[in-house]
Each structure stands twice: as C-alpha cells, then as structure tokens.
Amino acid sequence: MHVGSRRAVLNPVSGDGDHAASVERLLSARGFAVSRTEGPGDALELGRAAGEAGAAEVAVAGGDGTVNEVVRGLARADHLDEVTLSVVPVGTANLLAGTIGVGDRRQGVEVADTGEVRTIDVGFAGAEPFLVSCIAGLPAEASLAASSDLKGRFGTLAFLVTGAQEAIEFDGLDISLEVVGEDGPVTWSGSATCLLVGNARKFVARGGQADMEDGLLDVAIVEQMPTGNLVAEAVGHRLLATDTEGVTHVRARALSVDGHGEPVRFSRDGEVAEHEQLDIRVRERTLDLRVGPSYDPDPR
Ligand SMILES: Nc1ncnc2c1ncn2[C@@H]1O[C@H](COP(=O)(O)OP(=O)(O)OP(=O)(O)O)[C@@H](O)[C@H]1O
Hints:
Layout: E1 6-10, H1 20-29, E2 33-36, H2 42-52, E3 57-62, H3 64-76, E4 84-89, H4 95-99, H5 105-114, E5 116-125, E6 128-130, E7 133-137, H6 138-145, H7 148-154, H8 157-169, E8 173-181, E9 184-198, E10 201-202, E11 208-209, E12 217-223, H9 228-236, E13 247-258, E14 264-268, E15 271-275, E16 277-291
Parallel strand pairs: 1-2, 1-3, 3-4, 4-16
Antiparallel strand pairs: 5-6, 5-16, 7-9, 7-14, 8-9, 8-13, 9-12, 10-11, 12-13, 13-16, 14-15
Bound molecules: adenosine-5'-triphosphate (ATP).
Adenosine-5'-triphosphate binds at residues 11-15, 37-40, 42, 62-66, 91-94, 270.
C-alpha cells in the first residue's frame, strides 16, 4: 500500500470528546493520515478531498453524523464504489458501528486496519447517500428535538425521552407513496405517524440490524393513530410486530414519497432536509466496508 492511501477523518467533539489524542495516535500507528474536523461540514469536505485524491481507505472516527458527512463527501467525489470505509465509534449513538459489529474505539481501530471487507448496499435519498436509515415523521422530529445536551446526558435514550413528548403534539404526515417492492408495486396514501426506510436497520418485528447486502430497503409505514404515545413507545422500543395493525411493511428497491405540495422533513442518518417530493432507492453492493468479527451478513 502506498503512503497516503490511508486517510482518517477524526471529529474531536463527537460523543464525550475525550478520544481525539488517543485515537489519532492509534490510527497513525496503523498508517492512517489523520485530519481533524474543526466544525460542521468539515467531514464532508475531508471526505470529498479523500475521494478526489483517490484514497484507497478512509477511516471515520466519529459518530453517525460524521460518518454521514464523510460518505456524502465521497459520493460527491464519485469515489463511493472505489474506497474501503471503516468506522471508529466515538460518537453518542454509533448506530452504524453497532450494526456492523464494531463495539468500541479500540476494536474500531483494529477493524480499520485488518477487519473483513464486505460490500454493502447504499441508500440514496435524491442524490444524497445514507447507510443506516432515512426517516420522516415522528422519530425524525424526535431526534431533531433531542438537544445535544440531552443527547450528552442520556445518550440514545434521549430519543425515547423526547419521542414520548413529541408524540402528543405530532399531526401526522399527509403523504402518498409508490413503492417498488420486492414482490411488485405497492401504493400507500394517507396520514402517517412516520415513514421508516432502513438500509442497515429494520423497524418491524424484533428490529435491529437489517441485511445490508440484499439490494433491498426495509420500509415501514406507520399509520397515524389517535394515541400517539403508544406509537412513540412502540417505535422507541423497536417492538413493531410484523402484524401490528396500522403498520405496512415492505421490502423495497425504491420508493417515491409525495408530500402533496407540503414539505416533509426527512432525517438521513441524522442529517435533516425537507422535500415536497423525494425518490429513495438502494444501490446494491456499492461500498466496501470493514466489519467487526461479530458482523452477521444475514440477520434474521
Ligand atoms: N471540531 C468541531 N467542533 C464542533 N462541531 C463539530 C466539529 N467537527 C464536527 N462537528 C459537528 O459535530 C456533530 C456531531 O458529530 P457526530 O455525529 O460524530 O457525534 P455524536 O452526535 O456524538 O454521535 P452520534 O451521531 O453517533 O449520536 C456533527 O454534526 C458535526 O458537523
């Protein structure tokens, strides 16, 4: 491997922010040229620069937000399918790392160096990529409402805390969907509490990790229900059973979301944007990703 082909993007303020020096040292020792972010948007530019320089490997030391920025930068440099990505989890929730068997920062560094490489699907919402999920409605509102202070104190639980509060006030999304499902087209129209589209995560049955190599997105549409609290609880605990009334579940290659002229707020791996109309699709086996030893390519 030639010098400079391994780059790392390190967010020094992710999570509790006590990792920068030690993780930088560990990654440097494995041959990664480490760049630190100095503010929002830097990880995107560093990802783009790594892509434009043709970096063979990019490690991200950060949380899901930082991973999302780097992946967007790599996509803009048209380098997503030529790079090997790895994640050193130093954020708060670290959803992606959790689903690919990378438990902590030391293991993350080890995996960044020698972990098995799998080629995973990448979701796209319009032109923007996502690895974990693209969600609209209640959970997106809730995660938006979780201030970083709250996130800092409660970690992932902040989602649940705010989720329950927001549910009481949430009006629902008035949307129409055209879904290219695994078994044919599906249409849906109505008022939804939320639309959950997972690449690395699934939201029905036991929830948790989804198959990231099957060329399919896991789509759950939760109908607006009068008792919003109940839904918040169900979503929060990831207990949406397959047959829950009011929940439509489809494995899909693509879907088109229409907000009937009203902007719908989407969260792509935590990055928020509003769209009146959005096409979401999956590009099968697009990104090489280093995974931990407990990664299960076909979780059931
Ligand atoms: N040097 C910096 N100073 C302040 N903010 C930064 C800096 N570098 C990056 N950021 C911003 O920090 C935010 C949080 O990053 P990240 O998602 O990695 O951590 P987290 O929120 O703790 O973890 P998670 O997303 O896994 O819950 C990102 O929105 C990013 O834009």
